[in-house]
Amino acid sequence: MIARPLFCALAIAFFSLGLIEHGPQQVFHVQDQVENAFPKGVLFRLRLAADVPVKEVRLHYQVSPRGIPGVVSPPFEPGAIVEASYLLGWPQTYLHPGARITYWWEVTDEEGHALVTPTATYLYEDPRFPFRSLAEGKLTIHWYEGTEGDAKAFLRLAHEALEELQALLKVEVPFNVHVWVYRSPQDMAPALMPRSETFERQVITLGTKVADDTLLLAGLRDVDTLRHELAHIVTAVAGDTPFGSIPAWLDEGTAVYVQKSPGSFRFALERAVARDSLIPLPSLASPPGDPSLVELFYGQAWSVVSYLISTYGEEKFAQLFSVLKRGSLMNDALREVYGIGLRELEDEWRAWLGLPPVVWPTPQPQGLGEEAWRTPPRADGVPWPLIGAGAAAVIGILMGAWSLQRLLRAG
Description:
By secondary structure, this protein is α+β, with helices and mostly antiparallel strands. 37% of the residues lie in helices and 26% in strands. The chain has three domains: 8-124, Immunoglobulin-like (Sandwich), CATH 2.60.40; 128-239, 3-Layer(aba) Sandwich (Glutaredoxin); 242-360, no CATH class. The strands form two sheets. Strands 2, 3, 4, 5, 6, 7, 8 and 9 form an eight-stranded antiparallel sheet that branches.
């Protein structure tokens, strides 16, 4: 176990690259500056003087752990002395505390000479609080409120939860996980990805996974939120692919399942069961946009996962994730592991809750049945086949008259 202070990032990191000779025909004088503009993002600045006027400036960057490489061309006045800047942040890119940004500048002058600055890395942090850090194994806790003893106890609980989750899904997280702990949801709010004002007014975020390897939490004493968010790290390792994530109900349901208690999510589920007003299972593939349905969404997701594990066991549950990891669709994965599709799962789960099955509409085979043979009427009520028959008759009469006229003339 290692305990060490984590110094806040300076508001401005200044790098002077100085004089750079680029062949016998061009010399660049470069100054590179990076500014932490939290919570808006990171401001990159470049000041450059060259013997030959500069015509193009480009900033290359990539946000770890698996951000897509990006390149931008900041506006500037072409000339022998140029200044360019770019703010990397919301709404183009969300940057979370602890994000590492690898970047470099590319400059081209009017004669085609190019300069690429050395690759550098900038650590984006929340400079408002004096974070300290505590690391053990693959977990690192960053905190500023509470004693080191509190942080050690929290870190121990995090390790226990991570081991339980890895055992449940039969996987091992292959990277280090960072947990940034704020004193309160209010302290944490500016560090979160911005959402609608309506959502913010109705939903209080106690924790969230902001990257493959990073969690944000509010408070060192909320163990269930810690377990919930760590579950998202493990479910992604177990089931996500480069092309997509597992359905939200499976992800969130697993996260609530590993909590010590489902809390208010259980009550939301019980109210909906009493009224038989559950959200259809296919609609739980993504979180609801309506804040009033959030607790029911979590409650249903937890209930479906609880049903799968209690009925079929943990082995098959872990197998479901491994099949999804291969790239199978949810319905196909359910059939391979459990022998049922999503509809059958919903009916089984509803029966487990004491509810009747869903009444699914029976589709008519294409081209069969009385309605399939009926021709849709026009607006005036005349069927299209009658119009076609009438037109054919008129054409036939006209053709016959024309033929008769030709015969009479020939005679």
